[in-house]
Amino acid sequence: MAQQTARRLATIALALAATTGIGTAVAATSHAADSSTTTAAASNTAAASNTGYHFSTRVVNQGEQAALDACEGGLTLMPSVSDYVGRDYYPIHNECGGAPILNLVPGNTVHIDGVGNFTVVETQDVVRGDNASKIKGVAGDILLQTCHNSGQGMRVVGLTAVA
Description:
This protein has a single domain, classed as Sortase, Chain: A (Beta Barrel), CATH 2.40.260. It is 29% helix and 28% strand. Strands 2-1-4-5-7-6-3 form a seven-stranded mixed sheet. Helix 1 crosses helix 4. It is globular and about 35 Å long.
């Protein structure tokens, strides 16, 4: 039984490393922006300012790193990390519309089309060298994530559904 658990944890660590750059140690990368990603970022910012939310976005796809790298201007539901953290995990590249996540603080409001309205309950900066288990401890019903501009780490934001 312990051997199966160890294998399962190793599989999760490999999936995290392969799909998000998170493994035993966090390794974040930055991606070059293009005009379509700049438009996506502007679109998310405009949507938030028009709705009264601090950040308003949508889920555009589901999958692993390739789905995230498609940079479609919204969140990606990432099943492997969702399984690891025990709740839905939605990354978005900073230059693909995720930049506003870096400014979220507890008490801010977030709207995700088709998912719901949320309040930020915790933010956690994760840097290279941190253990991947650090993201498991972030409070909230769901987690958002984007990378810092430096490419040296990421921000994980815990959200709780608003009743």
